[in-house]
């Protein structure tokens, strides 16, 4: 089996039974904010795109590059389609000209022509990607590869059960706007960033330890930021709070915990995998490349500057009446929302900065009152500030996912009173009838976990109230605080209250306190 690195989360897997191109991303994403690094735009995409199978893990625009898919990927390729709850991915691919689809069943092995086997695990929480994320397992002639990309399954048991994995490719770096955009003192922002950076590595190392593959490949990040307005987000300033460490930093951090089996793939690197080895060739020496990271970024910034300026020229749509259009599109969804509206629980304010860079129009999405209106000087818990032109553009193109556009662009600032609220972002990810109905149904179906476990001196429910991670594996108790390390969510064990977000109460009690009817499994606390 041969694995060719093609940048970010993208790779091509070649076997004698066929080739699979995964997540090809080349063009800038999220309002021209994110670019792949190292640059992959000069690869021979005509050849790389002539593949037998195409796999797109999810619809985030650093994985689903519509322009590139349309231009460079063979329409004869069979799309390996994850089993997502909506038809959006298939609809978008069909609009690009793809006609051949294998609609996979999640966690079911499918045998393709020539003995090539694949299995896709689909994650379907409203918080997984835009309505879904996935991982791809591939086997040919006894060689197994898991392309986990940036999916976050609660565990890797399903893949372990299929046999020893030779190569494990997974995310290690940040892919979010927190905490950089928050209006916080720099010291606080740095501290929160360091916590997140540490959690990212901890989560990655746990996945690696779970699977115990022969070889590990860090992928799916980080992006680079080439616009002068966003340049400070690149991890080139020695900031321990930067959440975008690169692949070479991963190598160094992995070595600190005893990791010796990782390989960095540059765009154009080729890993040849056999039953007993994996030999990799590179277009340039990775250590030398990352030693000159700043120079590479500066060269890319100048080369891509016209592309960024051309994108900016398309955003303004003064003909759009933002208030009226937000009312037209969002108020019907507010009327239908029960769980998301209740979860947000208050008004969300958008401060829109005018073309002059000074004037501000404030609009409130009032979830309790189910209306969009002009801000009336009331207190709000959640506030976003961005350029009016960006919201004009979202409304002009009918964007149904403001997370997969505005928020991931990092072209905004945010402030909040109190905890993180996942329902705010879940709603603005679901600005369509289909998405909203799915998200409402998903939250309605969530049931309390009946099984309890013992962690340290506490009895708690086995599954995290957030996204059902197994706390026997991801739960860490420190005094009266439990942390689920899958996403870093914290709970007060004495009260069961979630310390990270609104809602998501944990069932917990001191060990020794009876709980009639609960099944108890004793496991040691993490680190014991």
TrEMBL record:
Keyword Iron-sulfur attributed: yes
Highest rank taxon of the organism: Bacteria
Pfam families documented for this protein: Lactamase_B_3, Rieske, SCP2_Rv3818
Keyword Metal-binding listed: yes
All copies of domain Rieske, residue ranges: 460-499
Keywords assigned by UniProt, alphabetized: 2Fe-2S, Iron, Iron-sulfur, Metal-binding
Residue segments, region Disordered: 509-528
Transmembrane segments: none
InterPro entries, sorted: RibonucZ/Hydroxyglut_hydro (IPR036866), Rieske_2Fe-2S (IPR017941), Rieske_2Fe-2S_sf (IPR036922), SCP2_Rv3818 (IPR057330)
Name of this protein: MBL fold metallo-hydrolase
Lineage: Bacteria, Bacillati, Actinomycetota, Actinomycetes, Micromonosporales
């Amino acid at each position: 089996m041969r694995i060719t690195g093609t940048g970010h989360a993208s790779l091509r897997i070649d076997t004698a039974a066929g080739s699979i191109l995964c997540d090809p991303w080349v063009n800038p994403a999220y309002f021209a904010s994110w670019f792949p690094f190292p640059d992959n735009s000069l690869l021979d995409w005509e050849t790389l795109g002539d593949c037998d199978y195409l796999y797109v893990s999810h619809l985030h625009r650093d994985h689903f590059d519509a322009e590139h898919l349309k231009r460079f990927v063979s329409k004869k390729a069979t799309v390996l389609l994850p089993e997502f709850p909506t038809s959006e991915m298939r609809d978008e691919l069909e609009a690009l000209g793809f006609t051949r689809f294998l609609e996979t069943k999640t966690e079911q092995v499918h045998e393709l022509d020539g003995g090539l086997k694949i299995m896709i695990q689909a994650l379907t929480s409203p918080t997984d990607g835009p309505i879904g994320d996935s991982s791809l397992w591939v086997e040919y002639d006894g060689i197994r590869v898991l392309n986990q990309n940036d999916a976050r399954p609660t565990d890797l048991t399903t893949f372990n059960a299929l046999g020893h994995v030779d190569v494990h490719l997974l995310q290690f770096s940040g892919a979010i706007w927190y905490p950089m955009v928050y209006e916080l003192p720099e010291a606080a922002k740095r501290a929160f960033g360091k916590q997140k950076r540490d959690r990212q590595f901890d989560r990655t190392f746990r996945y690696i330890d779970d699977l115990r593959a022969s070889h590990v490949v860090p992928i799916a990040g980080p992006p680079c930021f080439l616009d002068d307005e966003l340049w400070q987000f690149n991890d080139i300033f020695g900031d321990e709070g930067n959440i975008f460490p690169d692949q070479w930093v991963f190598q160094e951090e992995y070595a600190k915990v005893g990791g010796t089996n990782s390989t960095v793939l540059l765009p154009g690197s080729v890993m040849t995998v056999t039953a007993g080895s994996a030999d990799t060739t590179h277009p340039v020496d990775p250590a030398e490349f990352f030693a000159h990271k700043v120079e590479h970024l500066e060269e890319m910034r100048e080369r891509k500057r016209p592309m960024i300026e051309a994108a900016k020229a398309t955003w303004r749509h003064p003909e759009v009446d933002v208030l009226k259009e937000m009312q037209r599109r969002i108020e019907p969804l507010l009327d239908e929302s029960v769980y998301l509206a209740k979860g947000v629980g208050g008004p969300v304010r958008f401060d829109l900065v005018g073309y002059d860079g000074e004037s501000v129009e404030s609009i409130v999405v009032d979830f309790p009152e189910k209306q969009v209106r002009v801000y009336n000087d009331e207190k709000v818990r959640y506030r976003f500030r961005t350029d009016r032109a960006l919201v004009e553009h979202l409304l002009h193109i009918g964007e149904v996912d403001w997370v997969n556009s505005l928020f991931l662009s990092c072209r905004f600032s945010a402030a909040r009173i109190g905890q993180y609220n996942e329902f705010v972002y879940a709603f603005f990810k679901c600005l369509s009838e289909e998405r909203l109905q799915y998200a409402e149904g998903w939250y309605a179906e969530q049931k309390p976990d009946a099984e309890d476990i013992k962690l340290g001196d506490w009895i708690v429910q086995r599954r995290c109230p957030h996204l059902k991670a197994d706390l026997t594996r991801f739960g860490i108790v420190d005094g009266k605080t439990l942390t689920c390390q899958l996403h870093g969510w914290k709970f007060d064990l004495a009260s069961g209250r979630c310390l990270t977000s609104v809602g998501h109460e944990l069932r917990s009690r001191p060990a020794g306190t009876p709980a009639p009817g609960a099944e108890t499994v004793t496991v040691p606390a993490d680190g014991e």
